Amino acid sequence: MFDGKLPECFNRLSSIKLFDISSNQLTGVPFPSLITNLTSLEYIDFRNNKFEGSFSLSWFSNLTNLEFVAIGSDNENFEVETEEPVGWTCMFQLKVLILSSCNLNKHKGSVIPSFLLHQYKLRELDMSHNSLEGQFPDWLIKNNAMLQVLILGDNSFSGKLSTSFHRNPNTKWLDVSRNNMIGLIPNDIQESLPYLYHLNLSRNSINGVIPSSVGDLSVLQELDLSHNWLSGEVPIGLLTNLSHLNMLILSNNSLHGEVLSRNFKLSCLSSLHLDNNHFTGKMENMGAFNDLKILDVSNNFFTGLIPDKVNNTSMLPTSLRFLDLSKNNFSGPIPFSLSFQNAWHIHLGSNKFTGSIPNSFRNLTKVLTLDIGNNYLSGRIPNFIGELSNLRILLLEKNNFSGSIPSKLCHLTNANMIDLSNNLLSGSIPRCLQNIARPSYPAFMKSVHFSAGSVFSTPYLYSSSLYIHRNFQPYALFRIEDEILFTTKTLFMAYKGDVLDIMSGLDLSCNKLTGNIPEELGLLAQIHALNLSHNMLIGPIPVKFSNLANIESLDLSFNSLTGKVPSELIKLNSLAVFNVSFNNLSGRLPERKAQFITFSKESYEGNPLLCGLPLENECIMEPAGPQPSNKEDSDEKWHDMDMASFYGSCSSTWFVIMLGFAVVLYVNRYWRRRWFHLVEESDHHVAILHDLPSLTGHALP
Fold first, then answer.
1. Cα–Cα distance between 249 and 273 in angstroms, integer?
2. Domain 258-360 adopts which CATH fold?
3. Do the beta carbons of residue 245 and residue 271 sit within 8 Å?
4. CATH number of 368-442+482-620
5. Are the beta carbons of 464 and 18 closer than 8 angstroms?
6. pLDDT digit string, tens, across residues 8-23
7. Residues forming beta bridges with residue 611, ordered by sequence position
8. b/e burial code for range 637-654 (CB count within 10 A of at least 16 → b)
């Protein structure tokens, strides 16, 4: 890999035809003479370097043989300019132009390069990630009859998607994702672009229904219409006619209907994304997906049982690697016949599943994420969960699991996040949980990219006199980013993608756990969130918690903890949320410095024997000088009273009571008569007792 600036002597290579310096660490500003003197140049690739400054395509104007241009930089200060000088004329006809992520015409209003109006031989054009503005340039497809690939994603194009141009049977790849397109998907799209392999209109503001003509794109392999405002039902032809369809993404729209109850004819489908819509009905005929690897139907209104052999419906394919059925209304037991030996991520949370964890889950040897939280599952947490050595995320919260926490879970040394909260777990916290959260390698940072298919277009083949061949074939890279919900800093937060390798947490809250907090938990140096609240834990807060160097959220509230809040905890410089409220803690709070100066009295409320800021309870100051030591002094407690104050307080209280009594007698005539009557009777009884010895002749003892 080369670095530094381009040597000026390169401009002497007037006979060079292929100039490829891509994927290096070259810096500086490319100088015009470097390009203008290379008059025989046919192929130039400057991508993936560290160039800066401005690069003008007018430098190529006299290169009559130029066919391939790819320019870009990993430096934000690099810009490609096409509009200066005004009126420059290009003498070339390009076949491939790649100007992705290069701040194209940033200081000229981000306009589409005007020289493209005079290009008629383009086969591949990529101007993605440039914030280009204006109407969708359908004239590019009209002017270039051989155009196979048009990539305009991640810009600011607006207006309606138009296919009113003449029929172009050569266009196979159209990507207009992440723009500001509005309106409907054209009804005549099949007539205008009959041989599309890849169509990506995602992340726009396209509305209306999916036209039935999309189902007539007979060779379509990838369709992404996600993150729009589409409504209505999915056309029948889209699920039955597209026998070559490999990837279908309809996520984040307002589509409805019983889409999974239909008879599919999509045997080649490997990725199906229907999440975040309004789909209903049951999951049936899943056997039609022979090679399905990704199935995401989360956040819909699907009902019924998960298909398996027992209920005589087509089972979910065993080829699945990513399964997300969360946030639906699926019910019944999780089938014991399910077999996902190749699965990496399984999300069954937020449904209505009942019964116990099936024994077949012991075969999930490759699983990284297992989410079955927020259901009605019961029984004990099986020991075999601890044998899933690759497991990184275990979410069992909000169920009815009972019994003790299996010590086998301590074998999950790679597990970053474990949530067992809101169950009926009892017994003590296993001391060996100190062994978790020690992953040996990043599992999410290197997320697998699924290529959605084979070569779609006849590649542009560059062949020079040196017989060097370059194939330029577009392909779809679709990254699966796992996402989970976890409570930290009192918030139910979403964590997605690479951050799952960094985030680490243990949540055992809202159970019936007893005993002391194991001091060994203080060895979880990498953990960011620890929640043991709402249990029946006793004993002191372990001083070793001061070793939780990365802790951001520590919640020990609503237990029966005793002793002091360890002053050593002020060393926790990352601590943002600290809660020990509603325990039986006592003594002086840690000094208010570092993170502890940010904690309010709500962090300590419900502990009447705590004192010191931010609480209103003041601690009694100890004498500054040395005091004589005797047994009486040694038995004194920090909360002994001032006796003079005590007697004064009692006298005042007694006076107030008597005064109130006198006022009542003065105001209420009835009670005043009753009181005088009671006094007369008392005097009468006292007189009788006084005269009794003289009447009987005996003295009172």
1. 5
2. 3.80.10
3. no
4. 3.80.10.10
5. yes
6. 777 777 788 888 888 8
7. 588
8. eeeeeeeeeeeeeeeeee
